Amino acid sequence: xxxxxxxxxxxxPIVALWMCWVAPSEDYRWWFPTNGxxxxxxxxxxxxxxxxxxxxxxxxIVTITFIGxxxxxxxxxxxxxxxxxxxxxxxxxGSHSLELIWTIVPAIVLVFIALIQMDVWAQFxxxxxxxxxxxxxxxxMEVMARQxxxxxxxxxxxxxxxxEAQPGDLYAVNEIHVPTGRPVKFNLRTDDVQHAxxxxxxxVKQDAVAGLIIPVWFEIPKAGDYDLVCAELCGWGHxxxxxxxxxxxxxxxxxxxKQLQEEQNFDGVVEDEE
Length: 274
Hints:
The protein is elongated and about 105 Å long. The protein has helices spanning about 1-20, 45-80, 95-115, 120-125, 130-135, 250-265; strands at about 140-145, 150-155, 170-175, 175-180, 185-190, 195-200, 205-210, 215-220, 225-230, 240-250. β6 and β7 (about 205-210) form a beta hairpin. It has two domains: about 1-80 and about 100-125; about 140-265, Immunoglobulin-like. The termini are far apart. The chain has six helices and ten strands; from the N terminus they run αααααββββββββββα. It is about 40% helix and about 20% strand. α1 (about 1-20) packs antiparallel against α2 (about 45-80). By secondary structure, it is an alpha+beta fold. It has a five-stranded mixed beta sheet with strand order 3-2-1-5-8. It is found in: Cell membrane; Membrane. It holds the Pfam family COX2_TM. This is Cytochrome c oxidase subunit 2. Subunits I and II form the functional core of the enzyme complex. Electrons originating in cytochrome c are transferred via heme a and Cu(A) to the binuclear center formed by heme a3 and Cu(B).
């Protein structure tokens, strides 16, 4: 029975390695969210790809640590299980050298992770590091979270988005149209409780906090439909607070806005053709 527990702790690192190996494969897809079979869970935005790189780096560090500790525990148990009953026990008050090693090494690893992620974090969260195009063009839309939907406000064609609603603004619900191939910046707000804007295929996640206007940006190189969900428990209808981000060429976005403007300005009166 003693050897069983030693083998038990040897077994789980092997299972963990196997699961990490097969998780991203097409047969299992236990990994990142996909956007169809062609993406294989890859991030669909340049910033998301950098976030994935950080994830894999941290995953590698954690995996090595897990395997090392589990095998170390298994080795100690195996050594104790295979000792003869005549062997005398050895008592120790600890090792200062080992204590220094397992204190300093994790500290170095954590500082390394903190430093290596700073440029990615700054590019996503600090406006001074946003792509120059987003700062020049300003926000393209406002995304207002409310129980339990996403309301999108676009400025009138040719106008700049203002913090407060303007008479010519265009509105949509649960559907965001953005151009492909260039960074897009928008203002995120909430009309009631706290929500979280989460586009899993883009790896973009940002809380919407009451009273704040929070700038967010992303870039989608490939046209397609991408999921938007709320990642903050916001009430009974949280589960259905979903929307679609439609990435398409610039001309199609402008055509959509023109159609939205026509529908919004339609007064219901149709002139008879003589």
